[in-house]
Amino acid sequence: MRDHTVVIGFGTKGRSALQTVCATGLKKEQVVVVDPSSEVIDAAAAEGYAGVMGDATRSEVLKRAEVHRARQIIVAPQRDDTAVLVTLTARQLNRSAKVVAAVREEENAPLLKQSGADAVITSSGAAGRLLGLSVLSPAAGLVMEDLIQQGSGLDIIERPVVRAEAGKSPREMDDLVVSVVRGHRVLGYDDPALGALQLTDRLITIVRVTPGDQVTPHPRPLPGD
Q1: Cβ-count burial of 146 within 10 angstroms (0-12 exposed, 13-18 middle, 19+ buried)?
Q2: 109 and 68 in a common domain
Q3: Which residues partner with 50 through β-bridges?
Q4: Structural domain span for residue 215
Q5: CATH code at 220?
Q6: In a domain, 213, yes or no
């Protein structure tokens, strides 16, 4: 395989992450699941994914999953210490892949980033913030829950600026623009430094979808593509 997606850990987090990515058009044959449990690998295979059974902290196991040729790597094991070791090993094998990792405790997030993760999601912290928001404002909690549940209602996507939009401000867009990605910076829609939109910008927008729609976020090309 080449330019594929490797998912390490096929529990609730790994499975949900894969469902979200596949809903945007990723083909199941471009996915490899790595897990130490033979039952989990059998379940992944039953859903149409390739599987590699083994300890993902070991480089030989990740090499069997062709991690060194992967485009993106999702790290979602059960333990935070395992996530750190897997991320470190995966980054050593592949310097250019996009690595996204999940941890339970927020205090471990900086260690994941130091190990090479491009983005770290704290599951316990995110759940706690959603609980608190739902207590303070049930309506706001419902909106956030709608954004999290992919496939219907509100979705958040990343897409390129088209030629007809270049030169406009984010407030003039038909879509609800939340942020603008310019180079390596993410700017708020009201950032004074933003100015007019450029063709090289990418937009983070909120869109409304109905069940059955396929939302394609047009992922950022990797260097050399």
Answers
A1: middle
A2: yes
A3: 32
A4: 151-225
A5: 3.30.70.1450
A6: yes
Token pair recorded at residue 61:
């196991």
* Digit-coded pLDDT (tens) for 176-212: 898 999 988 898 888 888 889 999 999 998 888 765 5
Q: At a CB cut-off of 8 Å and minimum separation 6, what does 83 contact? A: 75, 76, 77, 101, 102, 103, 108, 112
In a domain, 197, yes or no: yes
How do residues 158-181 score in pLDDT, each as one tens digit?
889 999 999 999 888 888 898 999
164 within 8 A of 141, measured Cβ to Cβ? no
Q: Helix (H, G, I), strand (E, B), or coil: what is residue 216?
A: coil
First vs last Cα of the chain: how many Å apart? 16
Q: Clarify whether residues 118 and 44 are in a common domain.
A: yes
Whether 133 maps to a domain, the answer reads: no
Backbone angles phi, psi at 52, to 5 degrees: -130, 120
Q: Which residues pair with 52 in a beta bridge?
A: 34
Domain count within the chain: 2
**Residue 93 carries which side chain, given as an amino acid letter?**
L
Same-domain check for residues 187 and 88: no
Strands (E), the chain: 5-8, 31-35, 50-53, 72-75, 98-103, 119-122, 153-160, 176-182, 185-188, 202-209
Global confidence as pTM? 0.73
From residue 179, how far is each of 130, 147, 165 by CA, in Å? Answer: 21, 16, 15
CB 213 within 8 A of CB 205: no
Residue 137, domain member (yes or no): no
